[in-house]
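quick one
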Amino acid sequence: MIEIKTPEEIGKMVECGRIVHRVLEETGAAVRPGVSTLDLDALAERIIRSEGAEPSFKGYYGYPATICASVNHEVVHGIPRKDKVLQEGDIISIDVGAKKCGFHGDAARTFPVGKISADAARLIDTCRRSLEAGVAQAVARNRVSDISKAVQTLAESAGYSVVREWVGHGVGRNLHEDPQIPNFDNGKKGPVLEPGMTLAIEPMINVGAFKTEVLEDRWTVVTADRKLSAHFEDSIAVTADGPKVLT
Ligand code: MF3
Ligand code: CO
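structure w/ MF3:
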């Protein structure tokens, strides 16, 4: 069932979204060669707690950290580690959730580490634009599939593949709510969008094939062909005046 939020509840989600956005700005600014993904995790947790919020991911099905830090061919859910040290030319997706006043915000960005290749920069730019294209379809009376198709069309026109096995989701009192939001056309129209729905739209796009695998740590999702992947996510509210980005 899709939970419809009242304007007051969306106001609380604006606050969570502001905190998540702040974490992405500040952790993104700290991304540089020599920094470990555990350093970024500590920074994120410090900011979230200083805002009177809680990390949404820590303890979620036993997840051990505040952020997911996914480097290069890692797609999502990379676990921060002291020995995972960023190097010039890497790309890193930082994904973070914060809970405050009973609601969650969830968002991700992919950042360059120092100077990166033109190919990697184009992947990141395309993923950001595919998120924007998806968000633009988050309009009352559209369907979830309109979001999915917009993301897929933009990413595939640029020559990239779209991850199938992991999808976006509703977000609110729970980190993951209905509906599922695929980033590709799965042949189903999906639910009709209504004002008050709050959605986490999160394209994951690959340089190579769309297939992914989960590593031995049971969290880290990687591309099966170990080619580069990028990930962007925003939490948004569907309103009578169009999509409102919360993060
Ligand atoms: N943004 C990710 C998602 O929606 C974060 C989940 S990581 C977890 O799937 F650790 F919390 F599971
Ligand atoms: Co999410």
